[in-house]
Amino acid sequence: MNIKPIVVQKYGGSSLANPEYIKQVAENIVKRKDSGVNIVVVVSAMGKTTDEFVKMAHIINPNPDKREMDMLLSVGERISISLLALAINATGKYQAVSYTGSQIGLITDNNHTNARVLEVKGLRLREALNEDKIVVIAGFQGVSINKEITTLGRGGSDTTAVAVAASLDADYCEIMSDIDGIYTADPKKMSVAKRIDRINYDIALEMAAAGAKMLHKTAVEFAKRHNVQLSLGASLTGQIGTIVTNEKLSKGCVTSVVIDKDIVVIRFSITQEDGLKLPLLFSCEKVHLKIWQLVQGLATIGVSQSDLTTAKKIIEKTAQTVTVDDQCAILSIIGEAINIGTTPACQFFTKLNELNVQYREVINGELFLKVLIPVNDSDNILKEIHNLFFTNS
Fold first, then answer.
1. Domain boundaries defined on the chain
2. What's the pTM value of the predicted model, to 2 decimals?
3. Each residue of 46-71: pLDDT tens digit?
4. 6-245 adopts what CATH topology?
5. Which CATH class is domain 250-393?
6. Nearest 10 degrees: Cα torsion 165, 167, 169, 172
7. What are the two backbone dihedrals, phi and then psi, of residue 45, each rounded to the nearest 5 degrees?
């Protein structure tokens, strides 16, 4: 029986964007295997393949059926797994075998384009590991309980990796990308952002929920729930930069600053006598919308650009005085015990006032503080707030 440690690695699309990158990733995987582990690799579609498929589909049909979109979008990962397996086999050291989500028995619910993982059966996966093969799995996809191809939504390959790691009781789950860890802000936009060596699951979860691109919210939730050892590293070097841990870290300290521009704000009113509040809440939950405020018949909802049409259809069935604002962004500070009344919160609002920022919709929690700001100056505001908490720290 094979008792080597099990490592699940995930590689994003930018890490597999061309043949040279794929060969480099294959070499790193072989080195990881050389260290005496069993290795399972989960991959995304190459480069911008998924985005190109989406554009193509909407050119052909402006209102594409979700089932057919899943059939289309699942193709990208199949290309990646076959090419990466070929690259690993070309090294001559180990045999790699590629599987789709359905082939490893990744079972989901019936929600096309945004399916939820229910279980990973993994029989073929375990058989391949027992034969000392490197297993390459298509992320982002599975098969529904109705035996239909499904996809897991944005960031779904992260979720696949964590779900596979949980099913195998893997020793490590490593999310590899072109960014070598989690940073205090997006390092692609802010060169002064600092890498975080260790981060608490709850903080990582709030960062993902706030719009940070380094981890997907569903994947972090899954990892925390199933106690998966999660870390992040650089795909082209194989070096791990950040470890996600259950350890409680510094209280009253800002860990990161996040800006999310993919937001449309819908404001509307509901009359009390209509008694429509609960049905509206239930309807919104079905399409994964988030109600920020619902006080005395007045509500504010924030949705992504892609959810706007669906959200408006739901809201306009029951609500009145519906307005849409697409010129805003959400600015968040994330950390433990930084809610309103704490020193970091006071510093945050003082700086916003110094900058004459016209902020709205203050959203407060134990681990986060968020405000709605004008999108046209959001990059500069982000820079100033990041400097406030991290310059000379």
1. 6-245, 250-393
2. 0.85
3. 988 999 999 999 999 998 999 999 99
4. Carbamate kinase (3.40.1160)
5. alpha beta
6. 0
7. -70, 150
